[in-house]
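Moderator note: this is an archived Q&A kept for reference. The question asked for a predicted structure of one protein chain; the sequence and the answer are reproduced below.
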Amino acid sequence: MLPSIIAHRPSLKKSISVLLLAGVVYITSASFKNSSPASSRADSTLSKKAFLKVYDVLISPRCVNCHPAGDIPLQGENGQLHSQNVKRGKDGKGMYAAKCINCHMDKTQPGLNMPPGTPNWHLPPADMKMVFQGKTPRELAAQLLNPATNAGKSTAQLIAHVVADPLVLYGWNPGEGRQPPPISHEEFVTQFKLWIDNGAYFPEN
């Protein structure tokens, strides 16, 4: 029915053609804008810069001490090996009688350099060590995004982890005698989201 009406009303045919053309121009224009090289470069630059700020937190003592390259957790601001012969263990909670919870309670103990604490204090388990120590920015970004090395987390779950996990939050309330990470937790979360939301690009090493 519609083709018959259009055939007998040239003005209507012309109007529809103009509308269709306008639609094509709009769609093409919008698509070009969203995929322009300049836009992609801007997003990648923003993403990489954001991760470098995230990286500064992740390699600070508050994070790297519990993400060591070996199976012995680190201590202090200089990353010395943990005393008392403490080791990771299969589940990340220590070995034999030397369990993390023997000293690390549900909250940090008062006093200078007393044992820090938060519920379920532990290292990553032996089968998913999530090493931060010695990693370059690019290596660490790749590790965080890979489900095979990040305990199967999606990007949404990674964000939820840095926003609310008690072990993450501890870093900004580490107890007397310890330095917090170089930026606030709020800024850390902001930069983490910027990294993810702008493409989760890997920075150069």
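Archived answer notes: The CA atoms of residues 101 and 121 lie 7 Å apart.
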